[in-house]
Design brief:
- With 147 residues, the protein is an alpha/beta fold.
- It is built from 4 helices and 6 strands.
- The chain has a 3-stranded parallel beta sheet with strand order 1-3-5.
- 12% of the residues are buried.
Amino acid sequence: MKLHTLKPAEGSTKTNKRLGRGQGSGGSTAGRGHKGAKSRSGYSKKFGFEGGQMPLQRRVPKFGFKNNDKIYYKAVNLDALERIAEKNKGAELSFDLLVNNGIIGKNDKIKVLGRGELKSKVNVQAHAFSETAIKAIEKAGGTATKI
């Protein structure tokens, strides 16, 4: 066996059909059938096209509404603030500290809610507070500051 005698195994390769090269090669339609959009050059199907049937995105009803003026808050509860206060031993729970601890993202607006118990005296900075959260923070001796 030498390099110049190597060839693929028998039947493992086949030559491609040379379409559109006269009557002897797939006939006049070149394997595209007769007439219709798919037989024409430049045909490309629109995304979601189902052959004239009403497409799925138009069959399914529309619903819902996205209010661009509504402010969406990320909820942070008192028990999460207590864990951070124990870990950092700081009296100031700022927005940056919450971002660095992975509680919120840097583009989030936060609202402190009253679930859990706050034992540490902490100063909390947030965009909004629930009434129960403000009472719990002030009861523990801290302050709730709106950003």
